[in-house]
Design goal:
The chain is mostly helical and about 220 residues long. It has a domain of about 150 residues. About 75% of the residues lie in helices and about 0% in strands. Helix 7 crosses helix 9 and helix 9 packs antiparallel against helix 11.
Length: about 220
Amino acid sequence: MATPKRVSKKSVSHEEQMRQTIKEKAFELMAQKGLDNVSMREIAQKLKVTKPVLYYYFKNKEDLCSSIIEEYTEGFGQKLSNLQNTAHGMEEVIKQACQIQRRFFAENSARSRFVIQMLAYSLGPSAKALSRRKSTDPHVVLQRLLQEKAVKEKWPAAAINDMRVVMAALSAGMMLNAYFHQHLDTWIDKPYLHQEYTQERLDRLVHIMLLGIKAYYKGKK
């Protein structure tokens, strides 16, 4: 029986670095042109490598897209998981979760563009499942955190679903605001629409949301 080929730490490190380089270039192209409008050939040309090199690291474009998405969602989910130890109380969890998302888009303007392109792709006729929901999925992590705090603070179960719906709307607002602010010059010319999501404003909106939900469910189970 043949002896398995030993892979050195150096070569493993090189492969990991190459995978990351491919994902970064694909991310840039897809954020700019859309997931459906970027081919493996174009990615290979930008990297100055052959297509077989790409297929060595990724099975196909869907595999590459999924890897990009999972990297960001897992990183985002891990940051949310850390709130279990750093945030005390429902309001602090939600405020810090909003802060994490706000920073996510502020750190790299291409992220808001990529999310818009990903949403457009997912609604298109050629859309395929790009990633599977895991325990590190931000939605799963946040749901778990909210339920944990709800039990401790004796919130009605129905209130959690209301919080998730309102938070989803707030999340979408942040993402769209980041996209408009970072990529559309005409957005700046409309001050009546240009409402930046500062941390102060987010904290205030979260506080108002929780006050409203508490008032509505007061005395209810």
